[in-house]
Specification:
Elements (H helix, E strand, L loop, with lengths): L6 H7 L4 E2 L11 E2 L4 H4 L39 H5 L6 E2 L13 E2 L4 H6 L4 E2 L5 E2 L5 H7 L8 E8 L6 E7 L2 E7 L3 E5 L11 E5 L7 E8 L1
Antiparallel strand pairs: 1-2, 3-4, 5-6, 7-10, 7-12, 8-9, 8-11
Amino acid sequence: CEPDDDKDCCFEENRDFYWCDASTGFRQDRCVEFVTSTICSRCDTGYEDRSGDAPEACEDRCGDDNDDVCPSGCPAYEDKDCCFEQGDYYYWCDDVPLGKSLNSVCVQGADEEDRKLCPDYYYNDDGDRLRPASTSSDSDLDDEEDLNDDYKVMLELTFPNNELKDAVILVNGREIGVYTYDLEFDWDISDYVRSGVNSIQIKPDRTIDITSLDVRVKKK
């Protein structure tokens, strides 16, 4: 598998690379080591890191899914914020569904078969999920309690030294990249947690000493 052909292969090549969901006009432009403002324009859907965040050079442009803004003229299938602006019944898939075209990432509902093609699941602006109703585990997820909007869940780590910490943290299977020399690291995991039992796994690229790891519910 070539890094330019598959997102997982791209980040396996280097966890600090950036990925473009759409095919570009240049070979080897989907998986790139760095992004400038000029390179941004080559990717219609916007480059993203392994956590789904846009590189600094591409922030606030069409394709930045985490800026809560839909730029003028940006298609709904290229920017999550533009998709949700279409209406309450529109749902988004973070990756292009298997065997489908790019415009299938933003849908007004989805039938049972299409739901299975989204690598994770379709969800709307409120976080409600469109999941295949074929397993008991899916039914359990639909019955989960939602986190009160007045609160957030923070993952907090402290370290005993200023050495480089390079790792991936998995919260219920969702990746958070850590690359810091700081003594503290925190991340809002409100969208990653669920009611009941949750899992946290740390996959370091090098030895890391951790003083503490806490998950705290805080008022916004």
